[in-house]
Amino acid sequence: MKKEIKIQNKPVKKYRSGCVEGCIWVNKKITDDGEIEFKSASISRSYKKDDEWHSDVINLRRLDIPKLQMVLHKLQEELFLSEEGKEEAEEND
């Protein structure tokens, strides 16, 4: 039976736009066969509720990013390009 130990560290790169932050992580996983190194990403959104800061985090693997881009693009189209989305944006501005 293989024993796995996951070691976490600090992000190697951070990108921020307002309350949204993206980070690149280099992860190491130690198995019976030796140490394996791989990269992953995380997206977080910070917000303040009841005078306390909170953060929602999504951890992503490399192959999740194109899928996330496609979903975000469709959301953007719906929110900014559809007539219904334009009307809603005007009401909230």
How is the secondary structure organized here?
Blueprint: E1 5-7, E2 13-17, E3 20-31, E4 34-49, E5 52-60, H1 64-81, H2 83-92
Antiparallel strand pairs: 1-3, 2-3, 3-4, 4-5
Helix pairs in contact: 1-2
Q: What keyword list fits this structure?
A:
93 residues; alpha+beta; 5 strands; elongated
Written account of the structure:
The chain is an alpha+beta fold. It has two domains: 1-62, no CATH class; 63-93, no CATH class. Helix content is 30%, strand content 48%. It contains two helices and five strands; from the N terminus they run βββββαα. Strands 1, 2, 3, 4 and 5 form a five-stranded antiparallel sheet that branches. β3 and β4 (34-49) form a beta hairpin. α1 crosses α2. The longest helix is centred in the last third of the chain and has 18 residues, at 64-81. The termini are far apart.
Report the structural category: alpha+beta
Principal-axis shape: elongated
Q: Percent range for helical residues?
A: 25-40%
Mean pLDDT: 88
Helix segment count?
A: 2
Largest sheet: 5 strands, antiparallel
Radius of gyration: 19 Å
DSSP E strands, number: 5
Task: Please give a quick description of this structure.
This protein has helices at 64-81, 83-92; strands spanning 5-7, 13-17, 20-31, 34-49, 52-60.
